[in-house]
Structures are given as C-alpha cells and as structure tokens.
Amino acid sequence: MMTPIWFGTEDRPLFGVFHTPADGRARAGAVICPPFDRDYMHAHYALRLLAERLAEHGVCVLRFDYDGTGDSAGGPQDPDRVAAWLGSVDAALDVVRAAGAATTVLIGMRIGATFAGAVAERRGDVDGLVLWDPVVSGKAYLSEQRALSALSFTESTDRDDGAVETPGMRFEAPTVEALRAVDLTKTVGPLAERVLVLPRPEKPLARLAKRLDEPHVEWSEVTGQAELMDTGSPNQVMPYDDIDRIADWVSSAVPATSARLQPPGPAGPATVGRLADGTAIVETPTALGPAGLFGVVTDVPGHTGGPTAVFLNVANEHRLGPARLWVDLARQWATAGIRSVRFDLSGLGDSPTRQSDQRRFVTRAPESFDDVIDVCRAVSPDDPSNVVLFGLCASAYQALDSAFDVFPRGVVSINPILSFLPPELVTGDTLDPRRHVAIPRPSAMQAFRGDGRLAGLRKRFPRLAVRGRELSETLEALTAARERRPAAWLKKLTDAGVDVLLICGDREARPIKLSGTTWSFRRLERTGRYRLDLIPGLEHALLITDQRADVRRRVTEYMHRLADADGHATGRPANGHPTPVGATAG
Q: How far apart are CA 439 and CA 420, in angstroms?
C-alpha cells in the first residue's frame, strides 16, 4: 500500500510516499534518497518500482523529496540548502524508525547516494547502505552537470557570480561551496554494517573503491542505468534486473523476523507558504476520480475562484513539471487566488493504472483521455469545463486533444509534439477515435527514434538526425489529413470557445505555422482566443533557467487574464474541492 505523507516540521513540511507491506508488518525500514531534477524525473518511476519490490520482501519504504525540491515546501534558492537536504534524509530515517523499523537501510541514487553516505557516516546507526550509480562528491556532480549543460544546450549557461546552472536546476554560490565539501572518499569509518556499491561499468570509481575496500562492502555493477538515465524522456527503459538485485540484497541484509508497523498517518492539507498577511497557502495530496489518480491541489481556502489550472505530468515523468515549473506556478498563483491541481496520468508517477491489463510507464496512452475527463470532473464538478489545461511536449499534445472532450476555458500547450506513433498502433490496435490532433507517424519513421532498429544512425550523426527530425515532423504535419492539420483543429477549438495559447520554439512552431495560410491564422487571432508565442531558440524541455522564467511570465499573464475575464475576485469560494485521501494503491 502507498500512502502519501507530510513529515518534518509543520512550518516547512517534507513530502513523501510511505510503502507498507501487505500484512502490515515489516522486517526493516528503507529510505530511498533520490537524485536531483533531470536525473530525478528520469528515475522516479524506477524508485517507485524498487519501493514496491522491497515491500513485497517485507520492508517498509519511504520515498521522499528533499527540502525545497519536488512536492516539499520551500525552493532551491533558499539558504543553507546542503544542510537542509542532509537534514531531509535524517527526518526520513526518523519516520521509518517511528513506524517501528528497528533495522534501517539507506538507498541512494546518483547525488542521492552521496547524501546517503554522508548521513550514514554522521549518524552511525544505519544498518545497510546501497550506493546506486553514486557520484563520488558534490564537486564531481557539479562538474558533470556543467559538462552536460554545455553538450545539451546551444546557449551557454555559465555564470560569473559563482552559481552553477545544471539542466533544470540552479545552485547559488553558497550552495555550490557547501556541496563541493560533500565527498564520499573523505568519509571515515564503516558507514553501515553492510554496504552495496553499484557503479556503472564505464565508471569504475577507483577513488571510492580504494576508500571502501573493506570486507563488509560488496561491489557489483548496474546494467540498465544508461537506458534509464541517459535516454531522453519518454524513451527510458526500466532497469528491472538492477531493481531486483537491490531488493534481493536488502532482503538478505535485514532480519528474517518482522514486527507490526505503526505507519505514519495519511497526508491532509499542509501549509507550504503564506501570503503577505500570513494566510496559509495549502497543498493537499488527493485521489482524483474513480481510478484514484494521484494529484496535489494548491489553493488558499476561501480565497479562490475562476477556472482551475490543471497541470498534466510531462511525458512519462511525474507531476512536478519541467524543472518543477508546475509546483512553482501553483504556489505563485495561489497568492492571486488561483486554484490548481497537478496530477499523474494513470500508469505514471504515483497514479495507479485504470485497469489491471493497462501497461505501466506508457506515455500518450489512450487511457489518458479518461484521466483528463475524470480530473476535470473532480476539481470542478459543477462545471468540468471551468478549467485550463497545461502541458509540455507529450502532455502539451494531450492537453490539446483532451480539449475536444472537456472544451475547457483554456489550453496552454508548450512545445507540443503532435506527430508520433500512438501506443495502440504499436500493439496492433486501431487508432483511438478520440485522437483529433495526433498525426500518427509511420512505423518507418519510428525506426529512427528511441531504440528503433535504425536509431544507431541517429546517434552516429546527431546533427543530421536533428535536421532530419525537424523536416520529417514538418512534412508529416503538411501531408496529414486535412482535419488533422493544426490550422483546422485550432479553428474547431476556438469556434467552440476554447482559448488556446501555444508557446513554441522554432522546431515545434514550424509545422503549426505551415499548416494554414497567413489569412487563416489572422482570422484565428482576431477571435481573441488564439495566440502563438514563438520564442527563437527555446529549449524543448525548458531546462534553461532564463528561458523557463520567460515562459513562466507569459503563462502567468495568460492565466491572470482568464481569471480577470471570469470576474475572478479574491474571497469567492472555490467549487468542488476534492476529498483528501489516506492511501492510493498502485
């Protein structure tokens, strides 16, 4: 059973998900320390699977977000970041101990492994420690991430103020200095009674191997980390063998006998910020619709009105949005009386599947149509259309296509990818009739993408592949059936009263702009319900801080305009607040 919880201090709560074995008893307790931002988005579902596997072995587990990250309170620019992150690990360990786990295991991935080792050394009471694809030090992590930024982005992200920007996260100068001081090779003592280190084959970690050359330390290798972490969303492959190996090792390292648990209580409303007058900004983990989709509602109770912002999770990532943008927007807008919900589509993030035979970890699944309908009905039961749908990339597509089901007040679609191979076609089924916007990609095109049989050519000639991809997407849009061309369905949505904002980089805007005449788009603009913001050089996933701030400004202006047009006034009661939940089953 999965239970969302708040823990830590009341004025600065940390968010976590507690996994309880089916019989309510546990042999031990484990805390999973996640990596940061882009790494975390790629690894989140794998960490959920590991927690579920450990629960099957009779181990209770807490997955959590560090202070100022994920769904936890605070932000990455707050002071004393490294101390707060290490303190988050301490608080998580206290939770599993308070639940009745006498034996504890820390499991960390990437920078999470660095933090896990540092906390294990300081506490001296951790029984087991797993370092999964560890980064040896904070200094090495920052260097690695800066190099990744240089390779990934066409514009420089170097700073001259001592700060370091990585894909999706900015570390201020004091945080950089403190993070560089965290170094596993400089630890002393055994760290834990038993330690398992799992580096990648291509990263042997010689300095760490020398430091941890002890009889109680076991070394092995992870085999699926590259496919999980280095492959862009949504093409990750779950490392099932690595997950089973870790779960089996933990099971062998903890006592065979179990004890009755007293798990923490389920999360209700929690204060994650305050208005200038001290009024609380509240977030409530929530089960949405009949399927119990996992979501988080943000509002100022009694001070909200107008349409509800509905944030769809990006691709196969969980509900945080690009570089935590959905969280930041939700809390910012709450101060203006705008209510929002961010949620995980079924089979993704922390949501269950809609039915037992639904495939997990599949993006753009047909079930997503039902998910969006259910969420709109849950957050606005009196008028399910009184919402604004937000999405990026795959969820930008889903927001547009789901608009034909709910006809919302508005849609904000950021860098939508409209041409793809729908999952139902992959399994041999017919195209779902609810797909009005999708341009099904021929299987021959798909061979060049992801792990297709011709993907090697894309990897060998990356620049040629990028240009070929842009050209193919444009041609696919232009040769699509007339009703599937963007100009055609945009007219249908605006005629139905849906306000559409498209925010696109050059690549994503091209097939849209070429799908109609200059005159046809001018007519759309004159309705006042269509706007295309073309931002030259916009990075697709919004992982560059300055670009993300620009998009944040644009969508905030848009949302305020819709709220004002609706006669929004602070103090008007919200309609249809979802009921908080105690537990959701995966």
A: 7
CA atoms of 60 and 150, how far apart (whole Å): 40
Hey, where are the domains in the chain?
2-136+192-254, 280-565
474 is written with which tokens?
A: 């444009």
Close Cβ partners of 78 (under 8 Å, ≥ 6 residues apart): 67, 68, 84
For the ranges 210-214, 315-319, 361-365, 580-584, the lowest mean pLDDT is seen at 580-584
Cis peptide leading into residue 366 (ω within 30°): no
Domains 2-136+192-254 and 280-565 share a fold: yes
Rounded CA gap, 376 and 392, in Å?
18
Reported pTM: 0.91
As assigned by CATH, the class of the 2-136+192-254 domain is: alpha beta
State which amino acid sits at residue 527.
Answer: T
Give the pLDDT confidence of 415-447 residue by residue, as tens digits.
999 999 999 999 999 999 999 999 998 644 444
- Supply 100's token pair: 């009745």
Distances (CA, A) of 563 to 247, 459, 503, 558: 49, 46, 19, 9
Tell me, what amino acid is at 122? R
What is 280-565's CATH topology?
Rossmann fold (3.40.50)
